[in-house]
Amino acid sequence: MCCHGDALVQRVCELYEQISSLESLKPSQDVNTLFTQLVLTCMPPNPIDVTKLCKSVQEIRSNLIRLCGEAEGLLESHFSTILGSYENPLHHLDIFPYYSNYLKLSKLEHSILTQHFPQVPSKIAFVGSGPLPLTSIVLASNHLTTTSFHNYDIDPLANSKALGLVESDPDLSKRMVFHTTDIMDVTRGLKDYEVVFLAALVGMDKSAKVKIIEHLAENMNPGAILMLRSAHGARAFLYPVIDPCVDLVGFEVLSVFHPTDEVINSVVIARRSSYAPPAGIHSSPLDQKAGLNVGTVKLPNKCSEVEAFNPLNHGNNMIEELAFDQEQLS
Predict the structure, then answer these.
(1) How many CB atoms lie within 10 A of CB 44?
(2) What is the pTM of this model?
(3) C-alpha span between 227 and 297 (Å, rounded)
């Protein structure tokens, strides 16, 4: 039962009841209708803080994120199979219903990346690429046309389908590599990448995601960039949330963007610090004296400072930026 009187939360709880009673989350009219209603309910900007909801709603939210992740995986797999039946799959990407969102999100992420990492990266890792690696494909095709993309996924079938989409393209087939492995088993290899993208659905609950971030902090090179997807306001019913002030030990947070249009995910960009602690170890008094407060992200006092900024549409305030004072980061 929903213990919250808020109309939005009541509606989300109603949709959760309907979604959780579905026999299958594979694409169908019922599945598509319910998830569309859920997204439209959670899309408008809303000041709700999901961490302050009662325990029963918190459980509903955790279950809903898991169901959304499962449905998204099945949707991507379904369309990857359809695309794989074409002679040139990349010419038909627009049949995927959310392709335009990926175009916008990739443009946004590339714009944010170039502000903080102006050189063109030679190698990027994308963790959690899935059967339809649209972010890698769009970035490689439209924005980073000389960069190699190393896509990591734990599911061999997902990687097999993804490879089938790019192998007929003479350029992308050379620049897109697929690794079937758990990123937690990749250590030295992470030093090869100037930029690492972490997909929204890698680490479906908070503790799993934080463990992955700790692993990346231990193994990425100092100065390398980590790009993560998060969620803000009511959109946190759809995706896990990264708290930039708590969850990014070993990284300097550069900025956080919260879109307010149909691009659902927030984007967090952080730089691997020159000093990163081993997982679970907090800074000693000596580290603190030297300015190495590694137990939390630097600048906790800055975490509430939000200023309007939009790198894409200057006339339309669609994105908020949480900007950290660069002087204090140094």
Answers:
(1) 11
(2) 0.84
(3) 15
